[in-house]
Design a protein that fits this description.
By secondary structure, the protein is of the alpha/beta class. The protein has seven helices and eleven strands. It has two domains: 2-86, ATPase, nucleotide binding domain (Nucleotidyltransferase, domain 5, 2-Layer Sandwich); 122-242, 2-Layer Sandwich (Nucleotidyltransferase, domain 5), CATH 3.30.420.40. Helices cover 37% and strands 25% of the residues. The radius of gyration is 19 Å and the shape is globular. The mean pLDDT is 93.
Length: 258
């Protein structure tokens, strides 16, 4: 019965932010974002969201930030009286892998890959544009094969400013120019077009190994900034902002099958 389907308060604990949402199978509601340096509203917001989630319900989390996970666990314990089920601890990894150390792969990467394959059912590439950019490949059999990690657009902008004598810190935006007419435009163009080019080059390399061209899904806080608009790109099929949260919920549902 529909009332018996478990509801999940899914939490994605990243380097820069904690994202939470109510997930029930394919439905995602109430996505909220809290910057890791501004977590004072977290407990009250989680409590309010929890009251809207019908039973049965659980709290599940995927984390790449141990300090952020501790903050989340404290807020959940104080505000909800619940225990956080963490992927890689109480919950299994949400996708099969073909890498030597699956537990060393970022949980967010595995969650996004699992959710993408669940939606597509064929070989795919998941590009997650966050503090770091990850570009990962999943086989036609739904196995996580690995991927690439490179600096995100804001991290790269700060590196240029910190590592040079005269280059300024710029605020990245979508360039409407092909070549920069001043230093600011040149930096922004290099960052944005550079990430687009890196994505295309990686997808081409994965396609060569797979033997065919995979579908490409983008996610992450900077996906809308880096990726071309829908209909403009011949590379990216869709931008799915809540992909990792869907994968976190999948890990919980997978645990129920054991």
């Amino acid at each position: 019965m529909i009332d018996d389907i478990p509801n999940v308060l899914a939490c994605d604990v990243g380097n820069a932010a904690i994202h939470v949402a109510h997930v029930c199978v394919e439905q995602v509601a109430g996505p909220l974002t809290f910057r890791t340096g501004e977590l004072s509203p977290l407990g009250e917001a989680l409590s309010a969201l929890w009251q809207e989630i019908p039973e049965p319900r659980k709290v599940a989390a995927g984390s790449v930030n141990p300090a952020g996970l501790k903050a989340l666990e404290a807020a959940v314990a104080d505000g909800l009286g619940e225990h956080v089920l963490a992927i890689g601890r109480e919950l299994p990894l949400p996708i099969a892998t073909d890498v030597p150390e699956p537990d060393a792969v970022g949980v967010d990467r595995l969650c996004a890959a699992a959710a993408a394959f669940d939606r597509l059912g064929v070989a795919c590439v998941v590009a997650d544009f966050g503090t770091a950019v990850t570009v990962d490949c999943v086989s036609d059999e739904g196995v996580f094969l690995g991927g690439a990690i490179l600096p995100g657009v804001h991290l790269a902008a700060r590196s240029l400013a910190d590592g040079t004598a005269q280059l300024p810190l710029v605020a990245p935006c979508r360039p409407d120019w092909a070549y920069g007419r001043d230093t600011r435009e040149a930096i922004i163009g290099g960052l944005v077009y550079g990430l687009r080019g890196a994505l295309r080059g990686l997808v081409e390399a994965y396609a060569t190994r797979l033997g065919h061209w995979p579908l490409v899904i983008a996610t992450g806080g900077d996906a809308e900034l880096i990726c071309e608009q829908a209909g403009e790109s011949d590379l990216i099929q869709a931008v799915v902002p809540d992909l990792v949260l869907r994968g976190v919920a999948m890990a919980y549902y997978k645990s129920l099958l054991k």
